[in-house]
């Protein structure tokens, strides 16, 4: 696939997925109300028209065919009015549209994966379902008549008369010629039509320009026509055409069938217009007595044009490259300002240098903030998908549950948002499947509202996003969890020694499941351990809290971005380590009297009425240092997930925002994260500082003791 087609495919996938996401959200919201608004009917019609046309251009027959049938269905509904459907038909329409959206999305996924699209028989089978529903609501026995109803506006489009189309309703036509040798003329014609369709009602000739690649030859030879019922629409459309590419020339033709005396055509050659913008419109008004006010309606069209340039889609790889360069710039700026040669400058020269350095620091900080913000996207896309999950499970499980979404505009790094969708979906499914009570009677007996509640919330802190999934269902019984773990041989100490928190965390062990039966949604042994691992893979932490009879809350703390973090630099001998600020609870010094030992002789210290093990970094990494007494160094109380302990270091250097550098891929086989190493950063003097993974360090240093 050449670069042009690859770029076109990326654009197609982005736009189609966006339309399907919007369709899903629209359907979920309208189903809650129980009805479609006229605006939503028009929105679905336009979306299907766009998907039909763009899929036909890309020759994805299954997508274009199904989108075309849905478009026909909503043409009828738009024509007759949504109020013409009774409540039962509306319910069937919602189910049909959800299944149609799923079908289209599955076909798009096949395109993304490079898999073959659905066979003709499967396409016809689903298309017949749509046609059958259209036949039902239109009460037309003759199938051919039923199929013709949505196509009524297209009657008269196909004409054997050469030249101007035979359209008695048209006030005027725009006859458009494309650039010679542009290739894919029907695609460019469709792009021009698409630019006009949101603002005007019109008809296009040839009528199937967006779906029939064979029209390219006709467009090359004779151009194509756009028919308008209003002269004002023609004049406004002209101003939009001037901003479109690949147009060689166009002319406005009044319809001789509409007026007894046809005006002379006015030809506007977009390539020949070299004059300033003020003169650009004069050819359009020359020779027309009625065209004097042509500039007045052009104003709103000009206001309309810039709106399309407010948003652009950018390849994520380009944003990654930009962020890498900004990171290098931050490191280089730090290296320059901390260069030892500065000590040799005179006082005045040094002051001037530092003044410039402060301005440079401000600019690099601003550039860094902007580069980071480009990758930030709202989490609403993930949250809204949960609406659909809850909707489908409500019907299949026959449970009445309402989903409450809070903080959906919270923004996160694009890569992290993509990574957390599956974990959140798994938690929501678990809550729906065996978190919420099975029946309303069961909830009433427990003194609860008959309707279950599921709350999905996101909030910002300084450096992370906190996502919680809360249900008001059964809750989890620690005793039951301990019994199940004992049955599977997963306990590492006597059951009575487990705290409530430790008992709840047993559910995150691999293969642990309390479900006795396998359902569509759970009970397969792939449970919370996978969710926990996925959250930790993006630097997040995972916590569980539950009250028997009251419900369960799952809390995920996830960094805003994986590229830049706030860290505390510490020294151990001649080495410098960086510990994420988000994991540090407290730093303190102790005396010998405060050190206690467990049964195995391991050092522990007391904090907040609890005892925490001490990890000496110089021993763990086998580093030489003169500071080996706990009284001489510094202890950092750190926490990640449900693990808390203290790290012993020589001294603190200070807090600094650092650029996280991943290790080369050939080091992946060593699984450094399991040994407490998460990455590295380059310091101002060019030296490398290892970034510690607090959770991995606990697993390697504490559990091995």
Question: Largest sheet, order of strands side by side?
Answer: 15-19-20-18-17-16
Compute the average pLDDT. 79
- Strand tally is 23
Question: Structural class given helices, strands, pairing?
Answer: alpha+beta
Describe the global form. Answer: flat
Oligomerization category of the chains in this entry: single chain
Helix content: 40-55%
Q: How many H/I helices?
A: 21
Radius of gyration, in angstroms, nearest whole number: 33 Å
Kindly, what is the distance between the CA atoms of the first and last residues, rounded to a whole number of angstroms? 56 Å
Q: Which regions are unreliable across 5 or more consecutive residues at pLDDT < 50?
A: 140-162, 260-309
Residue fraction in strands: 15-25%
What summary fits the major beta sheet?
A: 6 strands, mixed
Write a brief structural summary:
It contains 21 helices and 23 strands.
Structure description:
With 705 residues, this protein is of the alpha+beta class. 43% of the residues lie in helices and 20% in strands. It is built from 21 helices and 23 strands. The strands form 5 sheets. The protein has a 6-stranded mixed β-sheet. A hairpin with a 2-residue loop joins strand 19 and strand 20 (643-649). The two termini are 56 Å apart. Mean pLDDT is 79; it is low at 140-162 and 260-309.
């Amino acid at each position: 696939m050449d670069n042009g087609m690859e770029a076109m495919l990326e654009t197609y996938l982005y736009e189609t997925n966006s339309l399907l996401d919007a369709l899903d959200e629209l359907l979920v919201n309208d189903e809650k109300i129980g009805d479609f608004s006229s605006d939503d009917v028009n929105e679905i019609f336009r979306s299907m028209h766009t998907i039909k046309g763009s899929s036909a251009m890309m020759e994805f027959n299954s997508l274009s065919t199904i989108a075309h049938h849905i478009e026909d269905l909503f043409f009828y509904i738009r024509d007759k009015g949504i109020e013409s459907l009774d409540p039962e038909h509306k319910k069937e329409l919602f189910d049909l549209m959800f299944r149609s959206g799923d079908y289209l999305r599955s076909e798009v996924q096949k395109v993304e994966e490079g898999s073959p699209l659905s066979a003709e028989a499967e396409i016809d089978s689903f298309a017949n379902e749509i046609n059958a529903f259209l036949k039902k609501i239109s009460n037309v026995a003759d199938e051919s008549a039923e199929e013709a109803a949505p196509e009524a506006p297209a009657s008269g489009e196909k004409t054997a008369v050469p030249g101007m189309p035979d359209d008695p309703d048209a006030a005027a036509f725009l006859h458009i010629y494309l650039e010679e040798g542009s290739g894919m003329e029907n695609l460019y014609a469709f792009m021009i039509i698409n630019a006009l369709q949101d603002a005007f009602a019109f008809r296009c000739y040839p009528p199937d320009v967006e779906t029939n690649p064979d029209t390219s030859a006709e467009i090359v030879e004779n151009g194509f026509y756009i028919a308008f019922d209003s002269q004002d629409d023609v004049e406004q459309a002209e101003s939009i055409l001037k901003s479109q590419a690949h147009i060689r020339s166009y002319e406005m033709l009044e319809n001789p069938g509409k007026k007894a005396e046809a005006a002379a055509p006015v030809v506007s050659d977009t390539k020949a217009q070299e004059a300033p913008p003020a003169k650009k419109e004069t050819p359009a008004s020359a020779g027309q007595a009625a065209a004097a006010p042509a500039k007045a309606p052009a104003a709103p069209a000009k206001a309309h044009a810039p709106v399309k340039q407010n948003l652009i889609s950018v390849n994520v790889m380009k944003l990654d490259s930009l962020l890498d360069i900004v990171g290098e710039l931050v490191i280089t700026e730090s290296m320059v300002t901390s260069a030892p040669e500065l000590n040799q400058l005179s006082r005045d020269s040094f002051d001037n240098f530092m003044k410039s350095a402060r301005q440079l620091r401000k600019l690099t900080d601003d550039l860094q903030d902007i580069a980071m913000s480009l990758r930030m996207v709202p989490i609403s896309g993930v949250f809204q998908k949960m609406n659909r999950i809850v909707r489908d499970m409500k019907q299949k499980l026959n449970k009445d549950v309402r989903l409450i979404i809070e903080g959906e505009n919270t923004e996160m790094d694009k890569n992290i948002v993509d990574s957390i969708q599956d974990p959140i979906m798994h938690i929501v499914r678990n809550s729906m499947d065996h978190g919420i009570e099975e029946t309303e009677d069961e909830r009433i007996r427990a003194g609860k509202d008959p309707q279950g509640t599921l709350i999905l919330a996101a909030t910002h802190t300084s450096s992370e996003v906190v996502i919680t999934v809360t249900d008001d269902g059964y809750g989890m019984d620690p005793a039951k969890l301990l019994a199940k773990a004992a049955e599977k041989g997963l306990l590492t100490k006597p059951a009575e020694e487990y705290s409530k928190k430790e008992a709840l965390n047993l559910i995150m062990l691999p293969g642990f499941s309390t479900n006795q039966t396998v359902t569509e949604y759970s009970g397969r042994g792939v449970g919370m351990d996978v969710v926990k691992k996925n959250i930790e893979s993006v630097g997040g932490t995972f916590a569980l809290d539950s009250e028997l009879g009251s419900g369960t809350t799952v809390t995920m703390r996830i960094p805003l971005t994986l590229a830049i973090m706030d860290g505390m630099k510490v020294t151990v001998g001649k080495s410098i380590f960086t510990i994420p600020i988000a994991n540090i609870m407290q730093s303190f010094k102790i005396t010998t009297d405060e050190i206690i030992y467990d049964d195995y002789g391991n050092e522990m210290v007391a904090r907040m009425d609890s005892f925490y093990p001490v990890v000496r970094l110089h021993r763990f990494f086998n580093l030489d240092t003169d500071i080996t007494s706990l009284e001489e160094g510094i202890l950092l109380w750190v926490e990640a997930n449900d693990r808390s302990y203290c790290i012993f270091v020589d001294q603190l250097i200070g807090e600094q925002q650092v650029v996280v550098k991943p290790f080369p891929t050939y080091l992946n086989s060593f699984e450094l994260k399991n040994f407490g190493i998460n990455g590295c950063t380059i310091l101002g003097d060019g030296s490398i500082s290892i970034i510690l993974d607090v959770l991995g360090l606990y697993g390697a240093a504490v559990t091995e003791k």
